[in-house]
Amino acid sequence: MEKAVSEAEELPKAIVRRVVKDKLSHCSHDADFNVHKDALLAFTESARIFIHYLSATANDLCKESKRQTISGDDVLKALEEIEFSEFLKPLKASLDEFRKKNAEKKKGASQSKDVKKKRKLEEEPSDKNEGSESRQDENDEDNAEDVTGDD
Asked: What's the chief localization of this chain (predicted)?
């Protein structure tokens, strides 16, 4: 049997199964249920088509703005345009949380870099002093030999 969709376009089946089971568990008190293979395939294909449609719409909005990179705001506008505005509120909340976490990571990374730079700057002058001191010690030893007259 020939596949209609390339492997690169397929969504990971394990993740789709996990999402479907998680969402169904919220709807049903019966925690033990199975999802038939055909149903899982239908969910996977539906999600793939939705992602393609949403990304194409967001891309169109991006091109209208004369930009080449799709932003999160383009996706939010695309959801409105394809009339899935009920997803806006939860998606905005997720996007805000994601941005907040990224900002914290960047802040922590930049602070870490600043600390490393500061340490390196503090170490460099002492290294230079140590090097000049050792050269001075060598010169002193050479001079001491000359003074004793051990020729």
From this structure: nucleus
